[in-house]
Amino acid sequence: MSDGELKVSKIKNGTVIDHITAGMAPAVLKILGIEQGCHDTVIVAMNVRSQRLGLKDMVKVENRVLEAETVKKIAIVAPHATVNIIKDFAVVQKIPVELPQELIGIVRCSNRNCITNIERVTSYVVVESREPLRLRCHYCETLIEGPYASVLLL
Amino acid sequence: MVQGPKLDWRGKDIISIRDLSREHIEDVLYHAQQIRPDPNLLQGRVMASLFFEPSTRTQLSFATAMQRLGGRVIGFSGTESTSIAKGESLQDTVRTVEKYADIIVMRHPLEGSARLVADTVSIPVINAGDGANQHPTQTLMDLFTIKKFHNRLDDLKIGLVGDLKYGRTVHSLALAFTRFRKIQLRLISPPNLRMPPSVLQELTGIVSYSETDQLDLSDLDVVYVTRIQKERFPDIEEYEKVKGAYVITPKVCETLKPTAILLHPLPRVDEITPEVDTLPQAKYFEQVQNGVPVRMALLKLLLLGA
Ligand SMILES: Nc1ncnc2c1ncn2[C@@H]1O[C@H](COP(=O)(O)OP(=O)(O)O)[C@@H](O)[C@H]1O
Ligand SMILES: [Mg+2]
Ligand SMILES: [Zn+2]
């Protein structure tokens, strides 16, 4: 990225989520809960060139530190994302997102007749395959294909 | 049948065929073949039979199995007279049951309910059907029957006929065969009732399968028939057109190998005509009887550990 561009998009403290799968920035914003009424600076870039991914999206949020749960959710929609922690304009930590083997309370089961959607039971979904993403409900064994997982995020 | 490696069944639940390795399956079938009624074996043990949804056959078969081994049965069938009717959660219900019983056998209309119960209680749990998901003891008795007549579970040509989309027994049986070698599955169904992609995906690369809408049974060792229900079709005409094409009649049976066996999870309606019942290949009544020894074996293994 050129210096000129960076100047526009510098934040002092916060988080830069880089290497987001192209087109998935809106899903990341949703996970971050960024909506009307939130006042911190948010910079979104979509379909920018990337050596690794061809095209990528990027989301920069000022004054925000991501919780572990949030990082797991981002890993579902953007498996190659990197979370950069920015302090005083500099990257102080770089964490590649990682999808854990088991997702507890992160994604709802897609099966309406699943016990977890009827009784008060925390969802529990097992990652069967990372790429392509395939999840399976620990309880009802329903297979959840990657593209659906993002609409089932809790 | 030869006894496999000695497995320790203590602490195990029977929730899904996905939990069972080839060794587990063979061990159950071995014990099912060996077991005889014995009023002392499980004397003093209590089985809680929790049928949140009634099912005559499965429930009676488990109760009989327990009683033949000297154990006692408590429980309910239907939830009208229980505290569940007052809104008690499934987890609270089974936490209470756990205090009174040594093992739980349950059927519930919601998928995933049996796994939830197994995770909640420390006594063993047997899933006798959780909605459309699993009914592993049905699959074990299907396998027991196949093994009994063919003396093997490898190297078989198996036809699954009828409603392969919604039929939980055929999904489960197909998955079970991923544990065995040289299996060829022929998936015979109307186009709108094909095996779901999610099941096919689990078979791919392990079991060879082909899909067809033709009732070609001539080279099969096992023919497993399921009912095609009216409700699965948008209109009655479509249903009438399709249904006749998958009915097993004596004429259809003329094409069967003499050693082939015809199975059906029952209740049968009109997908196998009554005249077929007396043919040598008809084994579905024997199949349902095998529910008792298979369930006796499971109760023994889970309660005694081996
Ligand atoms: N202060 C900042 N404000 C906004 N974005 C930043 C800041 N510092 C770095 N970035 C962006 O965060 C990402 C990671 O930064 P860096 O580690 O320097 O680059 P890279 O990962 O490309 O080697 C880059 O996309 C960079 O543009
Ligand atoms: Mg348990
Ligand atoms: Zn589920």
Protein model, in words:
The complex is a heterodimer of chains A (154) and B (306). Chain A is built from four helices and nine strands; from the N terminus they run αβαββαββββββα. Chain A has 154 residues and is of the alpha+beta class. The longest helix of chain A has 10 residues. The N and C termini of chain A lie far apart (34 Å). Chain A has two domains: 94 residues, Aspartate carbamoyltransferase regulatory subunit, N-terminal domain (Alpha-Beta Plaits, 2-Layer Sandwich); 51 residues, SH3 type barrels (Roll), CATH 2.30.30. In chain A, the strands form two sheets. A five-stranded antiparallel β-sheet of chain A has the order 2-3-1-4-5, with helices on one face. Chain B has a five-stranded parallel β-sheet. Chain B has a four-stranded parallel β-sheet with strand order 2-1-3-4, with helices on both faces. The longest helix of chain B has 15 residues. In chain B, helix 1 packs across helix 5 and helix 3 packs across helix 4. Chain B has two domains: 134 residues, Aspartate/ornithine carbamoyltransferase (Rossmann fold, 3-Layer(aba) Sandwich), CATH 3.40.50.1370; 152 residues, 3-Layer(aba) Sandwich (Rossmann fold), CATH 3.40.50.1370. Chain B has eleven helices and nine strands. Chain B has 306 residues and is α/β, with parallel strands linked by helices. The chains are: A alpha+beta (154), B alpha/beta (306). At the A-B interface, loops of A face helix 4 of B. Bound molecules: adenosine-5'-diphosphate, magnesium ion and zinc ion. The site of adenosine-5'-diphosphate has 13 residues of chain A, from strand 1, strand 4 and strand 5.
